[in-house]
Amino acid sequence: MSYRILALNNISVRGLERLPRDRYEVASEIGKPDAILVRSTDMHSMAIPETVMAVARAGAGVNNVPVAALSKRGVPVFNAPGANANAVKELVIASLFLAARNICPAWDFARRLSGDDKAIDEATEKGKKNFAGFELPGRTLGVVGLGAIGVEVANSAEKLGMKVLGYDPQITVQRAWQLSSSVEQALSLDDLFARSDFVTVHVPLAEATRGLVGESRLRLMRKGGVVLNFSRAPIVDDGAMIASLDQGHLHAYICDFPKNGLKDHPRVVTLPHLGASTHEAEENCAVMVADTLRDYLENGNIRNSVNFPEAVLPRIPGTSRFAVANSNVPNMVGQISTCLADAKLNIAELLNKSRGEYAYTLIDAEGAVDTGLLGRIRAIEGVLSARLL
Q: 118: burial class by Cβ within 10 Å (0-12, 13-18, 19+)?
């Protein structure tokens, strides 16, 4: 079987090489695609063809993908968690130094010097006192969100001699194992802000995180504190941030999101969304989503989905595989199994996983599959999509 993939953005060649040309056709314009590969294109106003079985975003955030609408169609949305973690981590660590040593305003000062070398030397000696900074060892960094990026940032900061606080009530067992034992758990967000000299946020944008860094929490921070935001712009309240900087409470704000209210402020450094902008990160993301997408299309396995549960079942030779996405309601597996039993099929292996209001079932069945069986499964109330592999 061959698959047609619509690529809405340029995808790293290393990723595309994971999709064999004899089985996959990938193009920027393609009719009736089986799946979509995307990086930055906003898909919310896009008419997504009914043939699409999956959407894979070569990056971590999926704010540009209509996840809720696709979920109702039984279409998993994949991302690449952790593939760009090192790239973002390096920029966050660099930003700690940018803030602590006032590097950007000092560089701007030096670039504006004029006259002969003697005049520049004299101006340099007079002006350097305005950019005196501080060192990182002994300072406290608060890390909000301990996913792939947050864990790497926390561990690297600890190696720099910083005291590190972390807060993430939903930290996974995998990330907890990766986290340095020296990282202290904050009791709450307010506790973290109150005890930190630096705060860096690494959480997805959602209603619960919009404005997470606002006036009340900025007031809790120690005088001379620094906030870093390499997640999403709305997580920080820009108005509250500027007010705190103007009042002299905070020392600096460094983020990846230039705006008119921020980009010219003397205590703000805005970078042009550089967090994951390395060749290595782009390649890692492309390879991860290509592998994930291929395994789903060919085997029905789900890894790294933002809307459906992880479900991985080794194929049993000589069987037919059914992959069913459905609403997470009682007796769905029973009804699907009854359909197979009525068709005289024996279930060799079954896996059912749920996540919130959605569930996913993989079944390897023995016996000849009649042409109407898939239609009967799709007709069950609550089934969102069903495939025979």
A: exposed
What is each CA distance from 36 to 27, 43, 245, in whole angstroms?
Answer: 10, 10, 43
- Determine contact, residues 356/328, Cβ cutoff 8 Å: yes
- CATH classification code of 85-270: 3.40.50.720
Residue-level pLDDT at 299:
97
Question: What span, in angstroms and rounded, lies between the C-alpha atoms of 266 and 170?
Answer: 36
Distances in Å between the Cα of 91 and the Cα atoms of 63, 200, 251 are 22, 12, 19
pLDDT (tens digit per residue) in 25-67: 999 999 999 999 999 899 999 999 999 999 999 988 899 999 9
pLDDT at 364: 97
Instruction: Give the number of residues written for the chain.
Output: 389
Residues of the chain below pLDDT 70? none
Kind plus residue range of the DSSP H or E element containing 351: strand 346-355
Of 3.40.50.620, 3.40.50.2300, 3.40.50.720, 3.40.50.1450, the CATH number of 1-84+278-307 is 3.40.50.720
Note if the pTM is more than 0.85: no
pLDDT at 276: 87
* Residue range 8-29, pLDDT digits in tens: 999 999 999 999 999 999 999 9
- Residue 46's CB is within 10 A of a number of other CB atoms, namely 14
Would you state the structure tokens that stand for residue 237, as one six-digit string?
């309240």
User: What is the reported pLDDT for 239?
Assistant: 97
Question: Hey, what are 43's tokens?
Answer: 């898909």
State the distance between the two ends of the chain, measured CA to CA, in whole angstroms. 10
DSSP of 242-270, one letter per residue? HHHHHTTSEEEEEES---TTTTT-TTEEE
